[in-house]
Each structure stands twice: as C-alpha cells, then as structure tokens.
Amino acid sequence: MACGMQLPTWSGHHWRLIQHFLQMTLLLSLLCPPTEPVPWDNGSSSSPGEGCEGFQVDVCGVCAGDGSTCELFSGTLFLSVLSVGYHKILDIPSGAQRIKIQETQKTRNYLALRTVTGDSVINGDWVIDRPGQFYAVGTQLTYKRPNEIRSRAGESITAPGPTNQELHLFVIYQQPNLAVYYEYILPKDPITDNHSDAYSYSSVLPLVESHGIFPDPGNSDSENSLSSSHPNQVPLDPITPEPVPLYSWLAITTTPCSATCGTGSRQVLFGCVERATQTTVPGDLCSFTSHPGPQVEECQSQPCPCSVPCGVGQRKREVVCVDNLGDIVADEECNMALRPQDLQNCDKGVCASSWFYSLWSDRCSADCAEGSRSRSVVCMMSQTNSLPLDNCDDEDKPDELMPCDLGPCTQRLEWYTGSWGQCSSECGNGTQSRGVVCVVQNSGQLEVTSEAHCTHLPRPPNAQTCFLKSCGSQWYMTEWSSCSRSCDGGFRVREVRCLQDDLTNSHDCDPALEPANKENCNTHTCMPPIDESCRDMYSNCVVVVQARLCVYSYYRTTCCASCSRVTQRDTLHRIR
User: Fold this and answer.
1) Per CATH, is 12-244 categorized as 1.10.357.140?
2) What pLDDT, in 10s, does the model give residues 465-513?
C-alpha cells in the first residue's frame, strides 16, 4: 500500500456499522473455518520466502519474520438463497497481497471479479471465461475451475498482489447454499498503524448488494438505519471487535492414495498452526475453533496398466464430453459417431512361466517308521497371476514329497484297511466296501487284535459311494400306489419317467424296457361279513343240510350257521 494513500474518515455511526460487520465476519470465520484452503499457486517462477533456506517464512512472506509487518484477513461467506444473477459479496482493498478465494465445494455458481471503476476482470457481462491467467489491477490473477468428472473442489482465484486498486468480488448465483472462503493480507504502515484503526477494518467487510446476509432484528428508524440505502441493515449498538484468533486449523498433509493407479481416495490431515508464522503448535491451542473434521478427497495417480501383465489383454482410458466452458456434460451432447474408443486390445508379449512351490509341511505322514512330508508345486507366470498354468517343463518340476523317519514302531495300535471292493452299480451311483481291522504293529510286524483295543482311535469307514460312469438316459419309477379295491379285483399305479443323468426329461430310453405303470391287485373274492347272531339252534343241523332243507326259511333260521356255509360254497363254485 502506498504511504501517501488518503485514509477515509468515519463518523461514530459508520464505526458502529463497521464494528458489527467485523464481529459477524469473525464469528463466521471461527464457527465455520474453511474446509479446503486454497494452496498457494500463482503460476510464477518465484513464491513467498524463496531463498529463505534454513528459516521459517511468516504469514506475511517475510523470511524469519514474526507476522508483525502485515494483517491477515480471512473468513467464510455463506449465502443460502439469492436471486439468479450477479451479487457482490466482498470488497478487496487496494494493496492486498496473497489473495486466495475458494468455493468450499463444487457448485453451479461462478466467481467473478470487477474493478472499482466497473471494468470486468473475470466472468463479466454474463460471459464465462476459460480457466487461466488474467492480468489486472497491477497483479496476475489465476482462475481455476476443476473439470474432472469426480472432482469436488470448487472454483478458485489466487493472486500474489499487491493490487493497485480496489477489487469487487461477485458471485453469479445459480445454486443455493454457497460458501466462499477468502484470505488476503495487508501490509502495516508503521506511521498510520498507531493512529488510525479505520485502515485495518474499513475495506474488508463482506457484503451482498442485492440480498442481506445479516438481517436487522431491531431499529426500523430510517434516520438511524441503512435499510433505505443498503440491504445489509445492522443494529447501532456499539460493539467492541474481537481480535483475530492467533491459531487456526490448517490442512497439513494427506494420507497415501488408496489406489496405486486410477482414481482412489485419501484423507486430509489437519494441524493447529500459529496464523502469524504458520508454524505447527499443539492442538489444544485451537480448541476455541471447531475442527474441520475428517475429510476425504479423491486422488489420481498414473493410469492403470493393461488388464494382463503378459499375453493378450485390454487397456482402457476415460472418455468424456466437454463443453465450450470446459465442464463435463452428458455423452449425448457430443457427436456419438466421433466418440473415441475407451477400450483397446493390447499384447504384452509371451508370458514367462516358472515353478512355484510352498514350504514343506511340518508333520510326517507316519507317526513312526518311514513316512513323507509334502509341499504344493504349481506352474505360474513369473508376473502377478492367480491362475495355475500347464506349460512348465516337467523335467524341472521340484519334488512334492520328501522322506521322513520317526523311528521304529513298537506296540502301536492302528486300524488297518483293505482295498475297496467292486462297485455295486455299473453306472451311476453305487456303493463299495472294504475290510477294516484293528492291528498291533511291533518292529514292522502286524498282528490282528480285537477291535476293542482300537476304540480310542477314529475308525476308518468300511463303505463309500462309488461312480464308474454315467448311465445315460434310463427309466425311473415311483412306488406302487395302494390297490383300488380290497377284494374282487382292483388295480394299482405308479409313475414312470425317462430321465437323463442330470435328471431332466429324455426320450432316449428303450421303450421295450419301460416298466409297467399299472397292474391288477386283490383279485380274491370278497367274503361276506360274519353275522354273530347267525347260529345253529339244534345239533342235528348237519342232517338239515344233507336233506337240502336250507331252501326253506324255517330251517335257514334254526340252522343259520350251517346253511350259510353251504350258500358261500355254492357261490364260489359258480364263480369258478
């Protein structure tokens, strides 16, 4: 700032307004610190503190300084709902240096700059400029608008300064809940610093020209209010401005990227720093400000290689449609007929293969005498690959078994199994068995003993399922149903199907071998029920039967049992 600059004079009325604005700005800065500070990057060949090897550069850019040669102004402006269009949100005074302006998150809004004389610097007159370098007000300004499809970072404007005239920051409002972080420094004038506090705070107040941020809950008197001239109406009670905090949270470093290629994520780590010197201090000194909390950002290292380390594979790239403003839009906005391919075949050459083997097992296969230890041996590519191959030279294959001897066996009980017998079925599932006996081993000699001696050992199975070959299509049937009648001839049925090995229906079975699905049953004659009241009343009923007197009702009643037997016998003779 020039030493001969005319300082403005302020009445007590204006001072009270300024003090209130200052308090609200500082309060917002303390309660809502920036979530993603803009790194210093002005694109120039030099930076503050260059050539200051071995010393700490303070916030003013002075080598081994103590931050007393400048004042730092920063804060976060929050705008919830505004009308669509340009809105001025901040005045940046002449002489400002190390200017940093950043949207805290990506939105559809745009930042804009205009000089105090009304000349557009960035994004003026409803024309959105491309990101790049702009020279105005005696400094170079860098405008960035991230256009990565997955980026969450908002727009930013940085400038080293100093500026030679006042700058007005606007936002082209299109989306609600906008938050903008700002930061710059003003050099202190040793002559005027002790005599005029107005210089420190007169030109740094945030404002919105069309809609107020801080509504007035009190006085409505037009003589003591700015409601007629400015929407940012404030109460007129004198307020003592709070000092700028000495310490704040700052993004110090990040964790390693979660992906070694392509897009991954990393966590931003914050530390407590002294604002004047930017040196790291214990975290409890920042306890009066809210911690930004855990923040995760996307990171992108080198592109991922081909899909295979060797042989024929595919490689891919990201293809997006970008409009004239550098923003990524839907693919349909571009000519789909001219869209570049995002996949391409590639050949990494012949795969080199080698034998890979595991460590030898710790246990011997036998508890005594001779046994063996084992390991796995597979043929795989020398590069990373999870699939075994079959093109290694068998002559070079390492051994999979190694002999071991735990000494002679004495009085050792064990189950001894014979060989498996023949499978019970020529095709499909069957069973086979083997002999299992308890033996005692002594110096290489085996002797069969009682199975009771081996009950403390797990007994091997003496039967198992077996499968020799597929049967192909064959007939399957269910059990017979119950007979339809209990006597005098009935029938029963069952379901018969031709099925393949996978139990799906087939038409390949031999019709001549198809089992019957119906047969007769219970063909015997039904016997009449026995009547307990039908008895012979006389002992000479045999004579009645011989005399064929049962045709008379009297004798059928008095010799009921004998006459009934004769009737049943005659019925059977007639059926046969």
Assistant:
1) no
2) 998 888 888 899 999 999 988 888 899 999 999 998 888 999 999 999 9
